[in-house]
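Q: What would this chain look like folded?
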Amino acid sequence: MNRNIVYVFTGTGNSLKVAKDIAAALGDCDIVSMGSDTQYEAAGGHETIGFVLPTYYRGEPGKVAEFIGNLNLEHNKNAYYYTVVTAGKYDGNTLCHIKKLLKRKGITLNYGKMLDMFSNYVVSYDMRDTVKEETKKSEIDFEPILKSIKNRESNQIPGIELLQEIAYRALIPLIPEMDKYYSVSDDCIKCGICEKVCPVGNIGLDDTGRPYFNHHCEQCMACIQFCPKRSINYKDRTQNRRRYTHPDIKYTDLAMLNGKVDPKIVFGSKPFSPDKKKSGSSIVAKLMAKAIWKIYGL
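A: My prediction, written as structure tokens:
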């Protein structure tokens, strides 16, 4: 067991790049995917435990909340805990959410920071052509964050912003089945890359090697952004938009993180089965979500 561990969730590689840089700086460090359904037991004796993740809809990905909620940290009460949130300009309530998830386990989040990185939610907008410049700026901005983590510094985690919380709570339940709007064109070469890079095992491959979606999506954009033929798209919006993956992260890095080394093996193909019962409150929440959805242009 290594002295340090970094838990990471990543789609296009931004958060994985940060996690790898932290691991290299700390040394003696494991990197574990928070998309996993199996690694919920943290062995005792870690000196530092980190969480690196992106912001989705002004909060953490649903799978991250689930993972941390299930993670057993009982034998690591005295470790130094930190979080780095990668985001395009704004991280919403993500840091506060992680702080609360850990507090329920009797853990104090010692340090948390947002790192502005290249924004890449291609469903809503085109990619800018400033990858090189923005990547360089992110590297510079990350230097003091990395120094603080190495020095085990503490800081004040911001509180909840109500309007952002309302938006997050209304939108996040709709995310898993957004993949019903995905299409796979005839340009697909059945390479299996999309299945490998999906952090939550949402993509399966049929008998011919063509991908299909299992409706527990996190909207990480890995499948769309890493597809070498741009054959996976969302509605009619993304076909002509640029693609982005972190320049230092290859699809093989994500495949290794996700434990997917053979494109012929289907991982995580269990169908998503949401509760079909609708309460009055859920109907109101859905109407509210649709109104917010229009603001986001989705």
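Residues 263-279 have pLDDT under 50 and may be disordered.
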